Amino acid sequence: MSTPGEEATAHGDHGTHGDPGYQHGKAAYLRRLKLIEGQVRGIQRMVDEDTYCIDVLTQVSAVTKALQSVALGLVDDHVHHCVHDAAGSGDTAELDRKMDEIMGAVKRLMR
User: Fold this and answer.
1) Residue 47: which residues within 8 A CB-CB, separation 6 or more?
2) Which of 52, 53, 66, 110 has its CA 20 to 30 A from that of 27?
3) What distance in Å separates the CA atoms of residue 13 and residue 19, rounded to the nearest whole number?
């Protein structure tokens, strides 16, 4: 759903952002995310079965670390693909936009 004054984009349409930097590793990311999804379901089951709190927390920590690993991979892909391409284009405004994007994402990850 788009907001007023904003055109809706089709699935897979990246607008002015270009192709995602993770495209070459998409299958691996999807496999990892499905594993993480299974871990989260396991945590839900643990809570449902009244598993000892420390054991649940251990699994929450594992999922958190797994998601952080995915995030770091995406940061790396963004820098090596999107930022690199913007730097090579000679368009300093586009490079500044990409740098601002990555720094904003890193700041959100560090909160």
Assistant:
1) 56
2) 110
3) 8
Domains observed in the chain: 24-110 (1.20.58.1000)
Which distant-in-sequence residues (6+ apart) come within 8 Å of 8 by Cβ? Answer: 1, 2
Could you tell me if 39 and 66 are in contact, meaning their C-beta atoms sit under 8 angstroms apart? yes
Q: What is the mean pLDDT of residues 45-72?
A: 97
Alpha helices per DSSP H over the chain:
26-48, 53-77, 84-89, 92-110
Q: How far is CA 76 from CA 22, 31, 51, in A?
A: 9, 18, 37
Q: What is the DSSP letter of 2?
A: P
